[in-house]
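A brief tutorial aside. Many learners find it easier to grasp structure tokens once they have seen a single protein encoded end to end. The record that follows does exactly this for Tr-type G domain-containing protein. Read the sequence first, then the structure, and try to relate runs of similar tokens to stretches of the chain.
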Amino acid sequence: MDARVSELFDSGNGSHGGASNVKQGNDYAVAHKKACVKNKKISKARLSRNFKPNNNAPYLPPEAEEGNIEYKLKLVNPTQYRLEHLATQMKWRLQEGRGEAVYQIGVEDNGMLAGLSEEDLRTSLTTLHKLAEKVGADITILREQEVDYDSDVPRKIAEVLIRKVPDDQQFLDLRVAVLGNVDSGKSTLLGVLTQGELDNGRGRTRLNLFRHLHEIQTGRTSSISFEILGFNSKGEVVNYSESRTAEEICESASKMITFIDLAGHHKYLKTTIFGLTSYCPDFAMLVVSANTGIAGTTREHLGLAMALKVPMVVGSTDDAVTAAQQFAQSPSITPIFTLSSVSGESLDLLKVFFNIIPPLSNSKEQEELMQQLTEFQVDEIYTVPEVGTVVGGTLYSGICREGDHLVVGPTDSGHFNILTIGSIQRNRSGCRVLRAGQAATLALGSFDRSLLRKGMVMVSPEMDPTICWMFEAEIVLLFHAKTFHKGFQVTVHIGNVRQTATVEAVYGKEELRTGEKAVVLFKFIKHPEYLKVGAKVLFREGVTKGIGHVTKLQPKAHYQLSQSEDDEA
């Protein structure tokens, strides 16, 4: 386990200071950090997104066959046959990047920054624009840079973002968990980004984000809310300043950033943990008040994000484009955006950063998940007038369409009930097909809401879900005031599952102390749950905190349909 995670938790609820690199005079700063990228091939491909400074021999890493990065020395007056080949190549790169690709113009396949004359560069960019039009995409020039060569004629390279025009709601959707201490300005910042207007200094923009009366009265978030910021194929911001509804934003956007606004107050920590474990955020954004610095739950939120391997995005104040390119290069780089929701300082840099930031998974991984059986995690349950029961959550695998028949459970007795999917909505806009990795709300019509609870799953009837009361997990005890032993009760978070469990056994040891590892047997006390081996585990009780992963399940039995549904079948 990363020692930095343990250090962050070791303070308990303390408010240690720490270098915060905050520019005084701004309202707050947003700190970002990238932790890990699962696919090594993706990481290698994305390293080329950052220009590598070298005065003697300027090189990028050699071009990778996979990934969404393409090197082109020049594109000057290609033949029609060559144009067709280049268009096919661009389609491949766009598919690899799930609708986004980056072209390095003036770069050879081996990564050498050869550069082009001004005339050849302009001609190449014109050709690239024609290719993009041919495949239904737009281009945005991210930056141009002179190459340090011993030449009388200046030579340049260009970095260009290619993005597909939205087609049938298949926009690229990235989820960003927004963390930070209470009163750090999280909701205000999101209000400014999504509403398109600056704050008055007293939190006016955050009022549109609150869900409950007591939140408006206190100015503090107590629940999880979702806000969207879109970018069209040209990289322009699409938000509520020009669009009246979420549906209009979805129709215009090629890329969508869904912000998960989490509570900052310590008494709502369980809600914040649920948001991090259940909603599968791609990145985490930590908001730090420039006035108070790193205080309260800030250290704890940072520790949670790092422990759960939620990457922290990289940011920079002097060059947002450079920050986005270095994002995949090093987990140790942690630049900071210093910005203000009142004056608007550096907000444009933050928007540019979100526009360029790449997804963490490629199209191949997406296809593999879509080929699996359907599994939808239930995170929220509503009753909507004239619609009926509605559930919100994330499609973990497979594909979900209107009219599909799924089974939902497990119930307290370990059974599953049959249901039919009605309408589907993504970001409050109608959707015909839901694909793996996407979040949505599903209408279930007259299905009895009392049969549902958070933490359930809706799966394909062909699946044989493993239901268990007891499971083993390899854990690390991050912090505990005394000792951790058999009989201890903790609240366990595994994905969208949140339930109290008892420690039935600590294998090989009588007790655990802070920093020690062991395999522990847990038993749920209320009802069985659907779990998977390898799932991340986070548990807490007071100041006690620990993390780990599921290593073994002790199945209750194979799942069963409820008696009434079985009879009907």
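Self-check: The longest strand covers residues 544-558. If you spotted this yourself, you are ready for the next section.
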